[in-house]
Structure formats: C-alpha cells, structure tokens
Amino acid sequence: MERGNGEKLLVALILGLVCLAGVAQVDAQGVVPPPPPPPPPPPSTPVGTDIVSLICATPGLSAFCNALATSRVSLELLQNVAVQRVTVFAANDAAFGNVRANIKACFGKEPIDVLSQVVAFHIATGGNYTAAELGAVYTLTTLHGMPLMMGRNVNGSPLIEGTASIVSPDVIHAVNATVHVIDDVLVPENLVRNIWEVCFGVPASSNTPVPPASTI
C-alpha cells in the first residue's frame, strides 16, 4: 500500500516537472503570442452587369439613364466594369434640363455621335474613387481616353471640369465601381467646335468664335 502511494507521488512529481519545463520554455521564448485576429470582412460585391440598372434605379438620374442607353455607352460601361474599376459622374435630371434645346436635338446627329462622346466623358477608368478620395485626385482619364480635370470648390469638395459639383456622393459604391451624382452635364472642350459644326453648320475651319463648353 505504501509502495502504491510512493508510485503516485512519483507520478505527481514528474507531472509537476513537465509543467515547470513548459513554463520555462514559454518564459525563454517570451510572452505567449495572442491568438490571430479574425479575418477581415469580405469586400463589397462587384456591381458587374448591375451597374447600369443600379444607375437607372437611382432617383433623379432618368435622363442620364436614357442617355446611356441611347448612346450605347451603357455597353462600353459594362465591358469596362468587367475588367477594371470605374468612376461615374452621373449628371442629374436638372442638369440635363439646363442643356439648350437645340443642342439636345442634335445630340444623336451624324457624322459624329455627339451624345456618345458627351456621355463617355462622364465615366473615368482606372479607379473607383469615393468623394473623399477625389480630394487628392487632379486628373482622371475618361472612357474614350480624354483627360477629366478635377478642381476644388471653396469648401474643398471636388469640382469637375470647373463646372460640376457632386451633389450626391457615393450613391453606388462597390469594389469595381463608384457613382456620384453631379449638377452639370460635362462637355469636353475639344468637342465644342464639332458640336457647332454638326449642330449649327459652322465649319471647323471658320474663325467664328465658339462659346466655351460650360455654356452648353
């Protein structure tokens, strides 16, 4: 009986030494590392083929939605959003309402499709920038490779092409696309002469001065 108690004592002593050895090993290596942090949340769902329908479902963008479809720039937008990130500056209905009636009447006129060039000028490729991120951006490249100049309002908010302010930022934001609502229709300056030639018959070679894009 005493021998049994002795064996139990020996086992307990061995277990104690094992525990001490483990503590010594931890002390020698430093503090036990904390458990790994939880994995980051999954990224936002890419908008993919939903980008056009999401734009069209946004209140106040019916004119821009129609312009996307009529110009067929909607197809270019879908193709681009499938392979790269884009930022869309969608002019609201009030902005389209301010465009001259005679300019609107000529938007789809040949030999150049004025509307497609105007609509494409509202879509920048190479990044899906939030309104906050646009504060550090000065030039973007549009769907047709034209530069889109970014300035600042007095309050520091983005000013696009010197005329358009963002009135509803980040109305759509995903990993591959961001959409902002703006208060003016963007027209590239190098398109103005073509507009006057196609819409009003003023030859490109004419010395007749044309108004700036901001007046269209």
UniProtKB/TrEMBL annotation:
SUPFAM superfamilies: FAS1 domain. Gene3D superfamilies: FAS1 domain. Pfam families: Fasciclin (PF02469). Transmembrane segments: none annotated. Keywords: Signal. Residues 1-28 form the signal peptide. SMART domains: FAS1. InterPro entries: FAS1_dom_sf, FAS1_domain. Residues 48-186 form the FAS1 domain. The keyword Signal applies. This is FAS1 domain-containing protein. It comes from Chara braunii.
